[in-house]
Please model this.
Amino acid sequence: MDTGLPAHPQARGNDLDFRHLHSIYQCGYLLRKNSFHMLNDIVWFKPNASPNPSCRFFTASHETLFWARKDKNAKHTFNYEEMKNGNFPEDKLKKENTQMRSVWSIPTPKNTEKKPGRHPTQKPLDLLLRIVKASTETITNKPVLGESLLEPRLLCHDGRDG
Model:
């Protein structure tokens, strides 16, 4: 049965998935239906979001990131100290030496990041690096066998294409 979710054979690890308004509720439903346990929803606020060309809607200046684990009893990694004390100069909302909040203000991808090609849902490197720092043990130079993080096909997936 195709659940619409990435397959995770191991119970250890994190699943992080970007969603826009038109698919966020379906994704949340499928995560719950497949016994994923929601840890957080994170809002990526885009301070330099592109304007809405139709002028018929508000400009979409955020995306939601679901952070979930395979089931309620599975282990997950969260690098609290790195998130609290790390250096995040691109984020004007993050105050020094305070807990990381669930709203991250990170500009859209820089032109230098778009050299390989342009995609309307491309994510900035600063955002992806923060996700890796927050939720993997590899920053401590101790990779964990079976640890998972992102479903690569979802990085540029907005729910409209397969």
